[in-house]
TrEMBL record:
Residues 71-85 have a biased composition (Acidic residues). It comes from Hydra vulgaris (Hydra). InterPro entries: DUF4371, RNaseH-like_sf. SUPFAM superfamilies: Ribonuclease H-like (SSF53098). The gene is LOC136076050. Pfam families: DUF4371. PANTHER family: PTHR45749, ZINC FINGER MYM-TYPE PROTEIN 1-LIKE. Residues 106-121 have a biased composition (Polar residues). This is Zinc finger MYM-type protein 1-like. It comes from the Eukaryota. Residues 211-446 form the DUF4371 domain. Residues 1-20, 71-121 are annotated as: Disordered.
């Protein structure tokens, strides 16, 4: 015997298939987003006020709406006719006494609730090949003429478990919570076959089902199956078709359509709130889901958490979550993670199509592509486009594309596929901008060359921000003094940040509102400016903090030693000189870099700003004495460490 406690592969597959089947039964979200051409039952703006929602929807709903909503919760099940379900759970229709007479099948009939006589066939079992004319007739006149529920149901006799059963009139009625009964408008009785049909499904459904083609006659499970059919997606779809066709034919809404509209209205209002939450979270880049997706749990994530918060002030949402929250798989609540993801997907596609249409309107565009690994170590290609809108340049992120290599050929395929998928013509590409890596910028087989072969006008301009970063980094990297200096800045940060006590000492000396030592930035070199500016602005205070730590006997010998080493370095003339010197250079670099990254930057400004930076740097060559003077003011009576060594050697 196996002792395993986990599920087998087959069991898991079965479970997954069941889950998929359950999901496929839900109505697609888009079915609730149909724009209603007819006058809505309740005006739209009423629903914007959270407190009025509850009242409005309640009063907009027909008395039986509450029942319908509850039924929406029930899993859609249409048990096979031969399958016996637990009789205890299903209320059996009351057996009708054997009917005495069958209504005569006259060709011309009059109906108590209809004002017209008809020559049309009123038996739905005989509607197999309904003419256009007959279909139009039923669309305009509705189901009341062909329900056939006023006579007897003699032909509905069926044998079930050795017992005669008949269709009950109670199947045509539904009891509301308040005890009131309403007519089940869509259900039709066929006197010839003794079975029942669905009005909308018989008219419009292309699928084979008991209610649309053969007729339903499992009277033992009648109530459950009728309710199940009414809440099924196919029935809903056909009712919508009926509704729109009737609207086209200029008919006023019948009770049936009002019921349908109210149901739609209810779910639209649920979805409005869900859309608002999804929009709110996604616009702020917040994560959606938590570890536990149960309403009421503190770990249920931002999506359910925000809905819970809203429900505290929104009685409609509160009521919905109370009834439908945590209803489990197979039940419709539109609160699940699947719905949430479907919405994110729909919204993402909408935003993308909006950008694409703007781009196509502008006709000419340029592309900017770079790759970076994400948290799950998948390399993602960031695809950005730039075009002109209202006489100003706009830069839009299109999408992330996972890539499997960095070869120019692969990248070319990815870029061209993405453009093709969005029906953007490569021949309208007027510019491309990447970093300076050889696979991107390569002159002979880089991505830029390959794109240029496809579209000659796609001029390649290396990313100015990337280039500036590279120039600065390389220039500083080839100077030993600069390396030693930046190493010292990093050591200073490491020393103070390693202990909270040291950090507090530093804070007490530097005081509020002044900059504190910072770490060097590994990615954006110009951001080293922050770290150097802190050292420059708070030089004396940092020195005093180090002196305090050396004298503090409560500190360990190691700390005192480290502080001593740092103070020896910080009081050298070279460090002071370089602090002032690099502070100036980096501030200019940083400002230039920020301008180069601006969305509305154009080539002219980029060239001018780079020329200005070059001019400034060149000018520094003649400023040596000035910097020396400044350093001497900050640290008087000190000279270069190296010069004293050299003097000794020479003497
Ligand atoms: Zn139906």
């Amino acid at each position: 015997m196996s002792n395993r406690t986990y599920q087998s592969g087959a069991a898991k597959r079965k479970k997954a298939a069941k889950a998929k089947e359950d999901i496929s039964k839900y109505l697609p979200l888009t079915s609730f987003l149909l724009v209603q051409k007819s006058k809505p039952v309740v005006s739209e703006d009423v629903f914007l006020c959270p407190t009025s929602n509850f009242v409005s929807i309640d009063s907009a709903l027909l008395p039986n709406e509450t029942l319908e909503i509850q039924q929406e919760l029930e899993p859609e099940q249409e048990p096979e006719p031969e399958q016996e379900s637990e009789p205890a759970q299903v209320p059996e229709p009351v057996q009708e006494p054997e009917p005495a007479q069958e209504p005569e099948s006259n060709q011309i009939k009059t109906y108590p609730n209809a004002t017209t006589k008809t020559t049309q066939e009123t038996d739905p079992a005989l509607w197999h090949q309904l003419s256009q004319e007959a279909q139009s007739f039923w669309i305009s006149n509705g189901p009341s003429m062909c329900q056939n529920n006023d006579g007897s149901f003699k032909n509905s006799e069926r044998l079930s478990c050795g017992q005669k059963r008949y269709l009950s009139k109670s199947c045509f009625r539904r009891e509301l919570h308040n005890g009131e009964f309403v007519n089940c408008e869509w259900l039709l009785y066929s006197p010839s076959t003794g079975s029942v049909f669905c009005f909308a499904c018989t008219l419009f459904s292309s699928k084979h089902s008991n209610f649309s083609t053969t007729g339903f006659d499992d009277w033992k499970n009648a109530l459950k199956c009728i309710s199940g059919h009414e809440n099924g997606s196919e029935h809903h779809k056909n009712m919508l078709t009926y509704s729109s066709r009737q609207r086209e034919s200029g008919q006023l809404d019948s009770v049936l359509l009002k019921q349908l509209h109210n149901k739609q209205l209810y779910w639209q209002n649920v979805l409005k709130r869900i859309v608002a939450v999804v929009k709110f979270l996604s616009s702020r880049g917040l994560p959606f889901r938590g570890n536990n997706e149960t309403i009421g749990s503190e770990q249920n994530g931002n999506y359910l958490g925000t809905l819970e918060l809203l429900s505290q002030f929104d009685p409609f949402l509160h009521e919905h979550m109370k009834k439908h929250g945590n209803s489990g798989k197979g039940n419709t609540s539109y609160l699940s993670a699947n719905i949430c993801e479907e919405f994110i997907c729909l919204m993402g596609n909408k935003v993308l199509s909006e950008i694409i249409s703007e781009l196509k309107k502008a006709k000419y565009y340029s592309i900017s592509v770079d790759s970076t690994p994400d948290l799950s170590h998948v390399d993602q290609l960031t695809f950005t486009v730039r075009y002109v809108k209202d006489l100003a340049p706009v830069e839009r992120f299109l999408q992330f594309v996972p890539i499997h290599g960095h070869g120019a050929e692969h990248l070319e395929t990815v870029v061209l596929n993405l453009l093709q998928e969005n029906e953007i013509s490569i021949s309208d590409c007027r510019g491309q901008s990447y970093d300076n890596a050889s696979n991107m910028a390569g002159q002979y087989s880089g991505l830029q060359k390959r794109i240029k072969d496809k579209s000659e006008s796609a001029l390649f301009i290396p990313c100015a921000g990337h280039s500036l970063n590279l120039v600065g980094n390389s220039a500083a990297g080839c100077c030993l003094e600069a390396i030693i200096f930046f190493d010292f800045v990093q050591c200073l940060y490491n020393f103070f940040s390693a202990s909270t006590h040291r950090w507090q000492v530093l804070l007490s000396f530097v005081g509020k509102g002044k900059k504190i030592v910072k770490q060097l930035s590994g990615t954006r070199w110009s951001a080293c400016a922050d770290a150097v500016t802190c050292l420059h602005d708070s030089y004396d205070e940092i020195k005093k903090a180090l002196e305090f730590l050396i004298k503090d006997i409560s500190q360990s010998k190691e700390t005192q030693n480290d502080a001593q080493n740092l103070i020896t370095k910080i009081t050298t003339f070279e460090i002071v000189f370089l602090t002032i010197f690099w502070n100036d250079i980096l501030c200019h670099f940083n400002e230039t870099s920020k301008i180069l990254q601006k969305e509305n930057l154009n080539l002219d400004v980029a060239v001018r700003i780079l020329k200005s930076l070059l001019h400034f740097i060149k000018d520094l060559r003649s400023q040596f004495e000035n910097y020396q003077e400044k350093a001497k003011i900050l640290l008087p009576n000190t000279d270069y460490r190296d010069s004293s060594n050299r003097t000794k050697k020479r003497s």
